[in-house]
C-alpha cells in the first residue's frame, strides 16, 4: 500500500482500522437483502393486483419477531465464523517438515506407495 506521506510503503494506523471492517460484510448482505425484498414486492402480481390490496394481516409484533429472529441467526453465524477465524489466526501455521528421501525413482513413484508406508503426512 503506497501512501501519500513521503511514499511510505506502510502506515501504522491502517492495520489498526482493518478489524473494524469485519462487520461490513454482514451489513452489506443484510442491506442488500432488505433492499431486494422491499423493492420487488413479491406478493403483488404486476397488472393484476394493486399494492394497497396486497397488505397482509400480520401485525407489527409478528413482523418484529421475524425480523429479530433473522437478525439473531445472522449475527450468531457471523460471530461463530469470526471467532473461528480469529482462533485460526492466533494459532498460526503448523510446521510441516518433510524429510528428504533421496531422489525419487520416477514421477509417479509417490502415487504408487501404499499409505501404510507413508509417514504422518496430512
Any descriptors?
about 120 residues, mainly alpha, 3 helices, about 45% helix, elongated
Question: Topology, pairings included?
Answer:
Elements: H1 13-17, H2 24-40, H3 60-91
**Strand-pairing-aware structural class:** mainly alpha
User: Which regions are unreliable across 5 or more consecutive residues at pLDDT < 50?
Assistant: none
Secondary structure: number of strands: 0
Q: What portion of the residues fall into strands of 2 or more residues? A: under 5%
Separate helix tally: 3
- End-to-end Cα distance, whole Å, is 35 Å
Radius of gyration: 27 Å
Name the helix and strand elements from N-terminus to C-terminus, one letter apiece: HHH
Q: Helix proportion of residues, in percent?
A: 40-55%
Q: Biggest β-sheet: count, sense, barrel?
A: none
If you average the pLDDT, what whole number results?
A: 77
- Overall shape: it is elongated
Structure description:
Pfam families: Cyt_bd_oxida_I. Residues 112-122 have a biased composition (Polar residues). It is a multi-pass membrane protein. Residues 101-122 are annotated as: Disordered. By secondary structure, this protein is an all-alpha fold. Among the domains are: 20-54, no CATH class; 56-92. 44% of the residues lie in helices and 0% in strands. The protein is built from three helices and no strands. It starts with 12 loop residues before the first helix and ends in a 31-residue tail after the last helix. The mean pLDDT is 77.
Amino acid at each position: 500500500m503506497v501512501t501519500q506521506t513521503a511514499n511510505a510503503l506502510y502506515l501504522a494506523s491502517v492495520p489498526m482500522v482493518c478489524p473494524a471492517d469485519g462487520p461490513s460484510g454482514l451489513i452489506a448482505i443484510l442491506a442488500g437483502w432488505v433492499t431486494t425484498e422491499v423493492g420487488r414486492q413479491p406478493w403483488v402480481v404486476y397488472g393484476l393486483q394493486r399494492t394497497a390490496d396486497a397488505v397482509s394481516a400480520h401485525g407489527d409484533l409478528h413482523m418484529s419477531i421475524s425480523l429479530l429472529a433473522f437478525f439473531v441467526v445472522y449475527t450468531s453465524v457471523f460471530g461463530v465464523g469470526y471467532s473461528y477465524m480469529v482462533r485460526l489466526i492466533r494459532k498460526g501455521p503448523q510446521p510441516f517438515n518433510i524429510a528428504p528421501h533421496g531422489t525419487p525413482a520416477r514421477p509417479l513413484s509417490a502415487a504408487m506407495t501404499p499409505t501404510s508406508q507413508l509417514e504422518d503426512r496430512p
